Amino acid sequence: MTTHPISIEGNPVSADGSGDRHIVGSCPLDCPDGCSWVVTVKDGAATKLRGNPDHPFTAGGLCKKVNPWLRHAKDPNRLMQPLRRVAAKGPGLAPSEAFEPISWEEAIGEIADRFTTIIETTGPAAIWPFAGTGNVGFIQGSAVPVGSRLWNRLGVSGHHLTICSVSGHFGLRYSQGESAGMDPEDVVDAGVVMIWGSNTLVANQHWWPFVQRAADGGAPVIVIDPVATRTAQRADLHVAPRPGTDAALALGLCHEIIAQGAVDQSFLADSTLGYEEFARSVEPWTAAKSGEVCGVEPEAIVELARLLGDNAPLALKLGQGMQRHAHGGQAARVVSCIPALLGSFADLGGGLVYSTDAPYGLNRSGAAGRHLGRRPRYLAMTNLAGNLLDLDDPPVEALIVHGANPVVSNPDVDRVRSGLSRSDLFTVVIEIFHTETTDYADIVLPSTMQHEQLELNNSFAHLYLNLNRPAIEPPGQCLSHTEIFRRLATAMELDEPELHLSDEEVLACLLDTEPYRAAGITVDVLKDKGWIRVPEAPTPYRPFSQGFPTPSGRFEFVSERAEDDGFGRLPNYRAPVEAGRPPTTDETGKRWFDLIAIGSDGHINSVFAGTELVRSRTQAPTVVIHPLDAAAAGLGDRQQVVIGNDRGSFQATLEIGAAARPGVAATSKGWWGMAVNSTVAERDSDMGRGGVFHDNRVWIVAADEG
Ligand code: SF4
To answer: Which residues pair with 618 in a beta bridge?
Structure first.
């Protein structure tokens, strides 16, 4: 069996005579910031992890969620050896009762035998590699889903990563051509900053100093969010639409910007398609109509439009929160029309940023080995329950889960549990700790963590490519994901060289593109510095200065592609399925709310949320409602409540406060054992089959009534 032991690199950062080595790495978590870090190593042990002060964007900072990384790595509950189930699937048993330790040879052999049998009897489509965003890197994570070469060769089911941002990407493609964004650093030159559906201070905190510089220069900062997050509380103006009504608010703003004569006629004439038709379509979207739909005072919409028109260029930050509903893709498409009307795409400091991923220009298809085979079908990860319970032709018979904790993160968690409980389903989970998902695993494989493996990370909030070098040897029997898949290929007697590339060879493959070659960026260059500005985003980065990558080469207010795809020639508003309604009390006396689950201050998604350290640091889960709603529901502050609907329920402590607008219940996501997502429907958004986490109607009652 070929193995690739990690080669510990030298000391590119410092050699200070202390015997310490300082290894540059990067955070792999599903967070826009893409922090660069430095691990201090002494006598083969990682003694310290801190932010890399040389990084241009993250500038020496990490976040309180990641600062204890090395403590998590040494947590006594960390998985250290492969395990095989010896008891029934499901929660309740201690890991030592549910599993027995086995060797890597046994574990890989058992997986290979089972996969081979499934391929020979049902066909490879019955195997579903289920990758999450626990690591968003290119080598070990989900940016190019690790294992892709093996999966392409085998022809197993494809995995559609739909849990986060897909709808917004699709929506922006209809208007902008791609979701490439302005350089977030250029916000310092903005005339006005609008943050739409992002709790930046918590979920994109390294961007905030740039926003602050714009604010110090006089740029008003506006936040659009149904919840008065920490970021909203720091804004000059906070507008709180009902969840899922973002497109209605945006259409009202477009109407007002046009009515106030604030459009940039020259940009519209030179760089857009269909302005006149669009302008006619928004005539009915007066501030009164828009305000009625989204629950905002018309005067606030008029004033907001005036603020935008008076202060362009507009730097618009779109967060993922605003597209997690039935028509999230359409909402992103409509919102993108605002900077187009103002001509802000043409100005330094103006434009829109949803993700900065587009110009990274890596050789993803080569790294994924797309030439090795085709996938017979693609399964959406947010349809896990349905795919496990209802799918045939063929049914899913094997699941290999990595970087994912679907029992916490997926919609309709109770049905996910039912699906994972199938006795005929063979489930492998690659993990760092036991999770609520390993409760359903047949085989658990212990994974390396970021400082123990080679990785390449991008960011979706800056334009620097980060190299993560392994700082120490893996503990126990932990293996990298790549090594696990190499061993699996060997056990399945697949000897194509592409299935046995070392991690360094994958890294070299990723950099093997014309822009990187032309810029002279090689593995050695990247190793030398730890990060580089991506070559397709020179400073200043003006992604649309040569035109928009649409069929017309212009920003498309009207889109034939959108019309052909059933989304309408013009950007429009379609009501969410459940959300966007005023609070109501039903005939049984239950008060109903739109539930929003924002990013937690204590953990990224569900990563590390089950560790003792995080549990001791974070408050118990809460749900916040407005005082008017609390009075109507007869609920009191700090009371235990049950939040539910016909899909499921969970318990939390009630907080009464104005952070939630009337009709909205605000909680945070990622908690282990809380099952927020048991209330969320497993339903697709309009574009890209995205999850609809914020299109969720729930009741709240006292716990002793629930
Ligand atoms: S989670 Fe985000 S802010 Fe925290 S260290 Fe990682 S990239 Fe930086």
So the answer is: none
Q: Locate tokens 């208007």: which residue?
A: 175
Ligand 1 centroid to Cα of residue 185, in Å, is 17
pLDDT digits (tens, 9 = 90+) for 688-705: 999 999 999 999 999 987
**How many CB atoms within 10 Å of residue 528?**
12
Ligand 1 proximity of 202 Cβ (cutoff 6 Å): no
| Residue nearest atom 5 of ligand 1, based on CA coordinates | 62
Nearest to 574 by CA among 340, 328, 390: 328
CB 63 less than 6 A from any atom of ligand 1? yes
Probe ligand 1: pick from 63, 135, 208, max atoms within 8 Å of CB? Answer: 63
Amino acid at 323: Q
Distances from the Cα of 259 to the Cα of 191, 280, 303, 338, 559, angstroms? 21, 11, 12, 13, 23
Inter-residue contact 121 to 343 (CB < 8 Å): no
293 CB under 6 A from ligand 1?
no
What are the tens digits of pLDDT across the range 136-193? 999 999 999 899 999 999 999 999 998 889 999 999 999 999 988 899 999 999 999 9
35 close to ligand 1 (CB < 6 Angstrom): yes
What pairing do the DSSP bridges indicate for beta strands 36-42 and 398-402? unpaired
Predicted confidence (pLDDT) per residue in 433-478, tens digit: 999 999 999 999 999 999 999 999 999 999 999 999 999 999 999 9
pLDDT at 444: 98
* Tokens 């029934």, residue located: 88
pLDDT for res 14:
55
Buried/exposed 310-340: b ≥16 CB within 10 Å, e otherwise: ebbbbbbbbbbbbbbbbbbbbbbbbbbbbbb
- Which region holds residue 244: left if phi is over 0, alpha if psi is between -120 and 50, else beta? left
Whether pTM > 0.85 for this model: the answer is yes
Q: Is 203 close to ligand 1, i.e. is its CB under 6 Å away?
A: no
Query: Does ligand 1 come within 6 angstroms of the Cβ of 201?
Result: no
- Asked if the model's pLDDT at residue 13 lies above 70, the reply is no
Looking at ligand 1, which atom is closest to the CA of residue 65?
A: 4
pLDDT tens digit sequence for 501-517: 999 999 999 999 999 99
Is residue 49 within 8 Å of 24, Cβ to Cβ? Answer: no
- Banded model confidence at residue 605, pLDDT cuts 50, 70, 90: confident
> How many other CB atoms sit within 10 Å of the CB of residue 273?
20
- What's residue 3's pLDDT? 40
Residue 626's closest CA among 124, 240, 54, 86?
A: 240
Ligand 1 pocket test: pick from 30, 31, 608 the residue with the most ligand atoms within 8 Å of its Cβ.
Answer: 31
Structure tokens at 166: 């897909």
Pocket test for ligand 1, best of 30, 57, 66 (most atoms within 8 A of CB): 66
pLDDT tens-digit map of 542-575: 999 999 999 999 999 999 999 999 999 999 999 9
Contact (CB, 8 A) for 61 and 505 = no
pLDDT of 662 over the 90 cut: yes
Provide the 8-state DSSP code for 252. H
DSSP type of residue 187: G
Assess whether the C-beta atom of 34 lies below 6 angstroms from ligand 1.
yes
For Cα atoms 522, 524, 526, give the angle at the middle one, nearest 5 degrees. 70
Q: How far is the CA of 61 from the centre of ligand 1 (A)?
A: 9
Residues 556, 268 contacting (CB under 8 angstroms): no
Write out the H or E segment, with its range, that includes residue 650.
strand 649-656
